[in-house]
Amino acid sequence: MSAAVRGLVAALLADAGDGDWPTGVPHRLDALLAAMPARTRHGFRAAAAAVDAYAAARTGRRLDRLGPGERERVLAGLAARPALLPLLDVVKVPVLLAAGTERLLAQPPRAAAPPAPQDPPLDCVPAGEWPDRSRADAVVVGSGAGGAMAARTLARAGLRVVVLEEGRRHTTAEFGRRAPLDRFAELYRDGGATVALGNPPMVVPTGRAVGGTTVVNSGTCYRTPDRVLARWREEYGLGDLADPVAFGAYLDEVERTLRVARQPQDVLGRNGALALLGAGGLGWRAAPLRRNAPGCRGSCQCVVGCPSGAKQSVQLSVLPQACAAGARIVTGAHVRRVLTEPDRPGGPRACGVAVRRPDGSELEILSPLVVVAAGALRTPPLLRRSGLGGHPRTGRNLAVHPATSVAGRFAEPVADGGPAVLQSVGVEELHEDGILVEATAPPPGMGSFVLPGVGRELRAELEDSGRLATFGAMIADRPGGRVLGREGGLLRYDLDPRDGRRLLRAVRAMGDLLFAAGAEEVLTGVPAAPRARTPREFTAALEGVTARQLHLSAFHPTGTVALGADPEVAPADPAGRLRGVHGVLIADASALPSCPEVNPQLSIMALALAVGEGAVRAAG
Ligand SMILES: Cc1cc2nc3c(=O)[nH]c(=O)nc-3n(C[C@H](O)[C@H](O)[C@H](O)COP(=O)(O)OP(=O)(O)OC[C@H]3O[C@@H](n4cnc5c(N)ncnc54)[C@H](O)[C@@H]3O)c2cc1C
Ligand code: SF4
């Protein structure tokens, strides 16, 4: 760890070197940065070096050579310059992640959790143990929401199915043993630091594990709204697929598989209770969310793997059923290319996949059917690497369902040590206008909410974060993004002006909810105007603020290999068949033609089920 980073952490967290919890933060931060892509790591270090250089210019000494008071004055000087605030934010986000974990570990342990249940069996084989040459009736690339459902459908129809997953298998017992941040760095691709470049830049985290992003999702289950299905029929020509009755039957089947039910009130936690209280006060529609977590104990760790096995992510639900029907899962298997026979009569045809093992060696699986379900950010690069990305809309049409958060401070503890569901209550009052608010309380530092201040102010915020309630809002967006390149990880997303206005309206709505629930103070999330003690102050704080000043993240990328009837517009046809080649199906979030306006896992799985069943029917 460089002196610049050490000095920066000490300055941000007002570490007086007295052995209190901030002392462990640099070490924790180092481990986190190691899991991130080189460009993010370098970006962080460059920002830290810039802050250090600013300190040297102001005081003649570097940050780690200054006393606590001087360090704080330097950062306060930086924070007072609006043009330099983004620099400060770049360094604050990972420091807060590491700090949240160190603080958590320094607290007295909660009552011991009951032992983790045994996970249902999976037929997983590490790529190193899989033969160099093999055959299957179908290979499925990616074991997340879409891939799992496609694999189960094909295996149940009697096909020999092999699922290829780049990540490894994680068990519920492991989740119970390891600290949240250690799990975070491994379960997320790029250590959770996948960023869409644009104005403003946006973090777009996705999972990499057996079970894909469902391992780290919040378990919220919304059915695809009828108005979205109507749009898919009318604008994208998905007449049969998006028929409300037919698609409704697929959604029913997915809900049965995931054991979806409304979350009982007794484990919601205060964050959720305050959302209900605020909505009640305003007369707004709100209710506990429907989730796939029967027996949820409210341990509030969904985004780093459920330690009680309650959340029915697909490695605990759909994939065991696929394996029971004969599917096999190869782990640590990075699919490099879909193999094709270009000169077949009737046009090019898929004939298998080439896979890279972790040691760099390759294996091949020959198969007449390849289902691509690598997620909306990784499916387009794989198609390009395979010479199948020629359609001009491949990788375009990226919608992300942008999200932002607001926090409110209450007189009594919100995180009171009792059970609490991470994402607990949905406020649907503005949903028809494209705004969905959900009470969301992730583990410390892991939210998209960035605490205000530097030095003692930030430290005090962290120490007092138990009195904060956090709400998040997602807005239905126009698909303004692109996945670039052949290797993945290069994204561009520009917020449409209409969506910027929606985000600001969502921020105002969350402030109204928090004040209506009795918040003493609302933290806006806007660095230039971070606090408001009354609704009037809140309105004033947002005056002149644009969406570009908000902290945005996005958890629901979709649409990059969209299904549609018009061959000019959609790279895949309404049955999920990739155009221009036989034998390749798209069955993940890429296939959704537009933002589903809700948390998307049910929509993705229902669509993958429909695509899989269509392929089985077509094969007779
Ligand atoms: C923090 C968070 C919370 C969320 N909460 C919710 C929620 O509460 N409710 C909800 O509905 N949705 C939620 N989501 C979104 C939801 O989980 C995803 O939309 C969904 O899992 C996407 O499904 P998918 O099949 O497209 O891709 P994924 O589930 O991401 O699966 C893709 C898999 O493919 C693998 N892969 C990629 N490239 C390759 C390759 N070349 N070779 C082999 N394998 C490869 C990846 O490792 C990954 O495991 C959340 C997402 C996040 C990040
Ligand atoms: S709140 Fe805790 S117990 Fe409930 S599903 Fe999430 S991680 Fe599992």
Could you walk me through the main structural features you see in this protein, from its secondary elements to its overall organization?
This protein has 620 residues and is an alpha/beta fold. It folds into 3 domains: 1-109, no CATH class; 124-192 and 208-219 and 222-259 and 304-392 and 559-618, FAD/NAD(P)-binding domain; 262-291 and 402-475 and 496-551, Cholesterol Oxidase, domain 2 (2-Layer Sandwich). The protein is 33% helix and 16% strand. It has 17 helices and 24 strands. Helix 3 (38-59) packs across helix 4, helix 6 packs parallel to helix 17 (601-618) and helix 10 packs across helix 17. The longest helix is centred in the first third of the chain and has 22 residues, at 38-59. It is globular, with a radius of gyration of 24 Å. Bound molecules: flavin-adenine dinucleotide and iron/sulfur cluster. Flavin-adenine dinucleotide binds at residues 141-147, 164-167, 205-209, 212-214, 216-220, 303, 333-335, 373-376, 378, 382, 423, 555-556, 588-589, 599-601, 604.
